[in-house]
Amino acid sequence: MSGEKVLLNTEWLCDCGGCHIALVDLHEKILNVLESVEIQKCPVLTDIKEYPEAEIGILTGSIRTEHDRHAALEMRKKCKTIIAFGTCAVYGGLHGAGLAHSREELVDCVYKNSKTTKTDFVPSERIDALSHEVTPIDEVIDVDLYLPGCPPHAHFIFESLTTLIEKKKPETNQETVCGRCRRVMKKTDVTEIKDPLEGVPDEHTCFLSQGYICLGSATLDRCLAPCPNHGVACSGCAGPSMQILTEPTRDIRTEVADRMSRLTNIPAEKVKQRIESSAKTHYAYAMATKMVGNKPTFLIQKWIADVEAQ
Ligand code: SF4
Ligand code: SF4
Ligand code: SF4
Q1: What is the pTM of this model?
Q2: Which of 110, 105, 93 has the alpha carbon at shortest distance from 305?
Q3: Of the chain's two ends, which shows fewer C-beta atoms within 10 Å, N or C?
C-alpha cells in the first residue's frame, strides 16, 4: 500500500463495541493499514462530534434510536464508501432478538429484573427512546460493502480494507462455514436430536451426523469456521448463506433440517420443529432483516411467544 493516506471515519450505533475491538484485533496488520489510512472520527480513539468528509466510512451496529438514525445519515452524507461492518449493521444482529419483546420488557429486564445489572436508576432524561424495531442500516441508507460477522474475522477485515484502499473491486465469497470445516459429513443411524451439552461429540464427524444442530450449512463463511473446528457447533453469527438470502423458498430451518435428515435417521420435520421451538437462539443474528423475516419465518415471533407461554 502506498501513496496519499485514505481518510477513514468509523461510527457505532446500537452495538456491543465488539466490532470496533475487532478492528484493533488486526494485531500487527493494523500497522499496514495505518500506513495508508488516516483515522478521523472514531468513537474509541477520537472525540470529534461532527462528521468530517472521508473516503471510507465504517458503520457498526443496528439502528434502534433517533441518534443511531441521525449518525447513519450523517456518515452517508460525508463518506464516499460505506461499509456495513458486522452482523448487527448488516442484519440487525443479536439486538434483533429484542423484536420478541416490548420496549418496556427490555428496559425492565436490564434495569429491574436482571441480577447482574439491576439498579435503582432507570435512565430516561436526555436518552433517546428505543424504537419499536431493530433496523439494519441498509433500510435507512445506501450501503456499498457488506462485511457480516460477529465480529468480522481479521482476515476479512484486512482483505476488505486493503481492497478499498487500493481501489480494487472486492471479491464476493459465497462459501458456507461447512466449506472451511474439517469435520466429515457421513450417514449415521442416529434417531434423536441431542442438546448442545449432551455427551461428547466425536471431533472428526460433522455435528449434524451426530444429532447436534449446527448452522454451518446455512451460514456465510466470514470467520474461517473457528467454532466447529474447535468443538462447538456453529450458531450462525455471520448471518445467512447466499442461498438462504437469494432463494425465497430456502430458510435456515429447512436447509439444516433437510441436510440433517439425510445424514441421520431423524425426520426433517422433527428438526424443523426443534429449530422453531428455539427460534430466539437459531434466528438470533438475522431475525431483524426483512431478507429473512419475509420468508415463512415471519412466524418467528409467534414461535418464541408460544415457547415463552409454556
Ligand atoms: S456484530 Fe457482534 S461484535 Fe459486532 S457490534 Fe454486533 S454484537 Fe458486537
Ligand atoms: S454442519 Fe457444522 S459440523 Fe457439519 S460440516 Fe458444516 S460446519 Fe462442520
Ligand atoms: S463458526 Fe458459526 S458461530 Fe462460529 S464464528 Fe463462524 S459463523 Fe459464527
Answers
A1: 0.90
A2: 105
A3: C
Measured by CA distance, the residue closest to atom 5 of ligand 1 is: 15
**Under 8 Å between Cβ of 15 and 58:** no
Which of 213, 187, 185, 310 minimizes the C-alpha distance to 270? Answer: 213
Whether the per-residue pLDDT at 170 is higher than 80: the answer is: no
Candidate from 10, 11, 14, 19 with most ligand 1 atoms within 8 A of CB, to mutate: 19
Q: What is the pLDDT of residues 78-114, one digit of tens each?
A: 999 999 999 999 999 988 888 778 888 888 888 888 8
φ/ψ (deg, to 5) at 63: -100, 120
Residues present in the chain in total: 310
For 130-139, how does the pLDDT look when each residue is reduced to its tens digit (9 = 90+)? 887 889 999 9
User: Which residue puts its alpha carbon closest to atom 3 of ligand 2?
Assistant: 206
pLDDT band at 238 (very low <50, low <70, confident <90, very high): very high
Please identify, by atom number, the ligand 1 atom nearest to the C-alpha of residue 95.
7
Q: Which set of grid coordinates corresponds to residue 300? A: 418467528
* Nearest-angstrom CA–CA distance, 270 and 167: 49
Q: Give me ligand 3 centre to Cα 238, in Å.
A: 6
Paired strand residues for 82: 57
How many Cβ atoms sit within 10 Å of the Cβ of residue 217? 23
Domains present along the chain, CATH in parentheses? 6-165 (3.40.50.700), 177-309 (no CATH)
Measure Cα distances from 263 to 187, 212, 254, 267 in Å: 4, 11, 14, 10
